[in-house]
Design brief:
A hairpin with a 2-residue loop joins strand 2 and strand 3. Strands 1-3-2 form a three-stranded antiparallel beta sheet, with no helix packed on it. The protein is built from two helices and three strands; from the N terminus they run H-H-E-E-E. Helix content is 17%, strand content 23%.
Length: 99
């Protein structure tokens, strides 16, 4: 799939994928990829893995979404959790109405 640079990436990608037989997409990316998907409201579910280790500052999994108050934060619903060895996964659907 060739997406023009000026096109809204996620909207274009998610419109084109079904034409090629793809019904869902899992994105595992760095801060820029995840941030762009959240900004373009392309994601409908979040999977967050937490490991019981502390490495200091580390690498941000989500960059600045320019959300200034907790009331405007991306909120999850239908939250579930599971344990994988020592790691914990939290998943939930992104609430469409953030309020």
């Amino acid at each position: 799939i060739n997406i023009p640079k000026e096109a809204p990436f996620w909207k274009t990608l998610l419109t084109e994928l079904p034409k090629h037989g793809v019904g869902s997409l899992m994105v595992e990316g760095g801060g820029e990829i995840i941030t762009s998907a959240l900004r373009e409201t392309a994601a409908d579910r979040i999977y967050c893995f937490i490991a019981p280790i502390i490495i200091g500052k580390g690498i941000s999994s989500v960059n600045d979404l320019e959300i200034e108050t907790v009331s405007n934060a991306v909120k999850l619903e239908n939250i579930r959790h599971a344990k994988f060895g020592r790691d914990v996964m939290i998943t939930g659907r992104i609430r469409k109405n953030r309020l």
